């Protein structure tokens, strides 16, 4: 039944946990390649808001990250990342937390691969990072969700703000 829901994700926007929804980290699909073996390779970009940075943590588990949920048919070893990032895939996706409690509640189908990219070098505000890819055996595009953990700059520009989670956003199919 889960296979009926399809494949990979087409992600185009997210909402922030602030009064200004236009100010939030975004994950976008920049290109989809149909490969000769029938698989599909998705190219993702991460865009930070002008008031938002990404900071590595003391370990992979504590750094800022982006998770794309329910990436059906992920081909092992197919994910690529740009310099300054690490990739992982878990059956239960990483979700932003505060004091051990989730900041958002995405739909995360059990035992379905999730794509998580964790920053290992600081990322400046207002940039786009390209070079994230993942390949799937599934050839249809369905709605998807993602979350992210980022550092928000205070409105007056004075110092780094609190950790912020971007809530999952359903995305229309193409």
Structure overview:
The protein has 174 residues and is mostly beta strands. The chain has one domain: Immunoglobulin-like (Sandwich). The chain is built from no helices and 13 strands. It has strands at residues 8-9, 26-34, 40-47, 52-53, 65-68, 85-90, 97-98, 101-102, 114-119, 128-136, 141-142, 146-153, 160-166. The strands form 4 sheets. Strands 4, 5, 6, 9, 12 and 13 form a 6-stranded antiparallel β-sheet that branches. A hairpin with a 5-residue loop joins strand 2 (26-34) and strand 3 (40-47). It is globular, with a radius of gyration of 15 Å.
Features:
6-stranded antiparallel beta sheet; Immunoglobulin-like; 174 residues; 3-stranded antiparallel beta sheet; mainly beta; 13 strands; disordered C terminus
Secondary structure elements and pairings:
Layout: E1 8-9, E2 26-34, E3 40-47, E4 52-53, E5 65-68, E6 85-90, E7 97-98, E8 101-102, E9 114-119, E10 128-136, E11 141-142, E12 146-153, E13 160-166
Parallel strand pairs: 1-11
Antiparallel strand pairs: 2-3, 3-10, 4-12, 5-9, 5-12, 6-9, 7-8, 12-13
């Amino acid at each position: 039944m889960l296979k009926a829901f399809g494949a990979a994700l087409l992600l185009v926007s997210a909402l922030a946990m602030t009064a200004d929804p236009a100010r939030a980290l975004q994950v976008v699909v920049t290109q989809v390649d149909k490969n000769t073996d029938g698989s599909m390779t998705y190219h993702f970009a991460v865009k930070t808001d002008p008031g938002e940075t990404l900071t590595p943590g003391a370990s992979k588990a504590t750094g800022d990250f982006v998770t794309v949920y329910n990436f059906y048919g992920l081909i092992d070893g197919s994910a690529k990342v740009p310099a300054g990032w690490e990739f992982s895939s878990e059956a239960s996706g990483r979700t932003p937390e505060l004091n051990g409690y989730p900041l958002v509640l995405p739909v995360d189908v059990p035992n379905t691969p999730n794509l998580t990219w964790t920053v290992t070098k600081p990322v400046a505000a207002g940039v786009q990072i390209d070079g994230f890819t993942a390949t799937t055996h599934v050839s249809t595009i369905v709605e998807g969700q993602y979350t992210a953990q980022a550092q928000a700059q205070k409105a007056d520009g004075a110092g780094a703000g609190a950790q912020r989670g971007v809530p999952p956003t359903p995305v229309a199919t193409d």
